[in-house]
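Mods, move this if it's the wrong board.
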Amino acid sequence: MSSSPGPVDPTVALGSDLVVLAARLVRVVRRTHHLPPGFRVLSLLDELGPQGVGALAEADQCSQPTMTAAVRRLAEVGWVVKEPHATDARSTVVTLTDAGATELRDVRRRSGEAVAARSTRSPEELATAVAVLADLLGPLPTPAGPAGPAAPEGRTS
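Not the wrong board. Structure tokens:
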């Protein structure tokens, strides 16, 4: 799969292939079913817990105005709520609602169904693949900046 000239460290070549294939898998899953706008924000809130808009923008590597617009749309459909920050009156804290958590679970279930429908591997083999990716990714770094209450333990994207 790798197309670089000359000898390449096998681990580097496999790492490159893994990135290409992971991106391809995400594209296939996205074509299989519609992801709601702001899905990434819901996922971030699930993993990090309540956050300020600036911290969400940092975690998503987007601008604060872009994140503000995304949060506004999510609040309009009831998937997040914005509440005053406990220690900074100029800020708000964005929290995933029960409806947002339900939507996130549904999207993740449909994504899992899309992968399962394509897979010829055993559950054990898929568990190994998941473990490898989890090891490579590690936990999502907690962004600096105003945040709400501490994130609950055990949240994952």
